[in-house]
């Protein structure tokens, strides 16, 4: 590691994580763009079952990092665990590629994806934290740019996989297009692994303590064996909704127990930061209930009640595929991320950075506005019950700005407030909270579940707009709560900063 030019070294290390995250998200969001449509259109699920299965799968995908973070911190090392997760994820996407419509096989593939994501996700984020450890302003900026990696990968895959699915189905007059599209997700992650191999030297000095030890085959085999068990358990959970529901509530209790235990047993000077992290994590849970609508109720709304022709001044510019509307989210995030990163860095240099709790409150206000735009879709519908694509564009724009202010800073919040020795584990606990909200989001989406015997857009339109309007009102409540806790968050943040300054002075002295 060069000591003469640390910023260049940090940039190179960050770029390595950035690119593998980009390709990993290419695979994940390419799959997400199609999965609910696949269950409804190909496997014959009704809306309710598709929403709940994907909600349960999403919950497992986000809960698993609680274990993966611990594996990275204590067993294999942060860097090695991230790479192991990437390989397992590519295997999961490869399984969906196989041309079978067996429902249990789909559940098995999702179980493999759960385990792979659990090992990859918290450790990739923790590596970013380790690169910029000790510089709050750079951490906020780095995680905002890192979040852009998610959206670069997801934009291309969400636009590409629906096209591949339709093209292959038309050319070969069969349903293999679904599996060809899932195969592209696998290929993307393999490209990411090859790219990491050539850039691996920049990460040699970054990782947790086990990364510095010689590779332990026995520990690695134990992790793989435990992963196989988790795949089996995940498959069973996805097959039985009662078990899925019980699992989610158990995970919620475990998350609160983790925070409670760590707060109670931490050093007195560390508690303010941990309490602040808990408050913001709870707010994030509420945000992701809104977020889950993107792949459930909003996707099915696009399928049934949106005019896919993108019109401007009476001219048709192009035509969307229903699954491609999800790409509006990462497109907006890519446009807004550099602007916000610049604002955060500039404000931080001037000592005027908006507190992270204030950013959360502003984010909820933007999400609220976005769902009210969706709720007004009926006002822009034609006689056939189809609303304008512009409703989707502007609704996603507001929603995506809110996402950047809340979800985009979720990992930065953990990096800022949680002691370094708990980093991977607490990022895992954060993802447990996200997982809970994914399942709750599936339940919320079912308030707009359209019965299979309803095919008239004029009948389905008011079902969707009623849900979106209710979510707008719920967003107002979340915004007011976020504003109400600002004084508490300011006090906790001040205490945390004073402790960090004292610790730094003690280390320097």
**CATH architectural name:** Up-down Bundle
- For the termini, the CA-CA separation is 26 Å
Q: Output the structural class.
A: mainly alpha
Task: Estimate the helix proportion, in percent.
Answer: over 70%
| CATH H-level superfamily | MFS general substrate transporter like domains
Poorly predicted tracts of residues: 1-8
The CATH class turns out to be: Mainly Alpha
User: Secondary-structure element order, as H and E?
Assistant: HHHHHHHHHHHEEHHHHHHH
User: Order of strands across the widest beta sheet?
Assistant: 1-2
Number of helices: 18
Annotated CATH topology: Growth Hormone, Chain: A
The total beta strand count reads 2
Looking at the structure, what is the overall shape? globular
Biggest sheet statistics: 2 strands, antiparallel
Gyration radius, in Å: 22 Å
- From the structure provided, what is the oligomeric state, counting identical versus distinct chains? single chain
Q: What's the mean pLDDT score?
A: 82
Strand content: under 5%
């Amino acid at each position: 590691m060069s000591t003469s030019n640390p910023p260049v070294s940090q940039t190179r290390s960050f770029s390595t994580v950035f690119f593998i995250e980009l390709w990993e998200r290419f695979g994940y969001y390419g799959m997400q763009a199609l999965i609910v449509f696949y269950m409804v259109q190909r496997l014959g699920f009704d809306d309710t079952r598709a929403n709940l299965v994907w909600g349960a799968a999403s919950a497992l995908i986000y809960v698993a990092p609680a274990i993966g973070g611990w594996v990275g911190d204590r067993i294999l090392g942060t860097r090695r665990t991230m790479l192991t997760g990437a390989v397992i994820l590519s295997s999961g996407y490869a399984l969906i590629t196989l041309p079978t419509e067996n429902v249990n096989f789909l559940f098995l593939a999702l179980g493999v994806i759960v385990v792979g994501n659990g090992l990859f996700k918290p450790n990739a984020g923790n590596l970013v934290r380790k690169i910029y450890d000790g510089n709050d302003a750079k951490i906020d900026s780095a995680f905002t740019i890192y979040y852009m990696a998610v959206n670069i990968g997801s934009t291309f895959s969400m636009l590409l996989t629906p096209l591949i699915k339709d093209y292959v189905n038309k050319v070969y007059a069969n349903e293999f297009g679904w599996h060809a599209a899932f195969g592209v997700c696998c290929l993307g992650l393999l490209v990411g692994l090859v790219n990491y191999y050539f850039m691996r030297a920049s990460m040699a000095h970054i990782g947790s303590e086990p990364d510095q030890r010689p590779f332990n085959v026995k520990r690695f085999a134990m992790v793989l064996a435990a992963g196989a068990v988790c795949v089996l358990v995940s498959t069973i959970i996805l097959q039985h909704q009662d078990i899925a529901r019980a699992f989610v509530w158990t995970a919620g209790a475990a998350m609160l127990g983790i925070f409670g235990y760590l707060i109670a047993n931490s050093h007195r000077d560390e508690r303010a930061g941990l309490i602040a992290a808990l408050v913001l994590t709870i707010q994030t849970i509420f945000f992701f209930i809104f977020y889950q609508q993107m792949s459930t109720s909003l996707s099915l709304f696009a399928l049934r009640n949106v005019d896919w022709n993108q019109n401007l001044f009476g001219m048709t510019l192009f035509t969307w595929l229903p699954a491609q509307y999800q790409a509006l989210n990462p497109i907006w995030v890519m446009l807004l991320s550099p602007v916000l990163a610049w604002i955060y860095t500039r404000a931080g240099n001037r000592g005027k950075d908006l507190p992270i709790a204030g950013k959360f409150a502003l984010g909820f206000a933007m999400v609220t506005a976005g769902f009210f735009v969706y709720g007004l879709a009926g006002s822009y519908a034609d006689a056939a019950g189809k609303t304008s694509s512009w409703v989707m564009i502007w609704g996603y724009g507001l929603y995506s700005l809110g996402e950047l202010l809340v979800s985009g800073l979720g990992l930065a919040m953990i990096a800022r407030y949680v002691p370094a020795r708990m980093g991977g584990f607490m990022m895992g606990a954060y993802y447990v909270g996200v997982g809970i909200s994914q399942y709750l989001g599936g339940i919320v989406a079912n308030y707009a579940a359209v019965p299979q015997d309803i095919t008239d857009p004029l009948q389905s339109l008011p079902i969707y707009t009623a849900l979106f309007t209710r979510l707008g009102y719920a967003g107002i409540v979340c915004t007011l709560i976020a504003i109400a806790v600002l004084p508490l968050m300011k006090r906790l943040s001040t205490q945390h900063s004073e402790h960090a300054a004292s610790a730094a002075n003690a280390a320097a002295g």
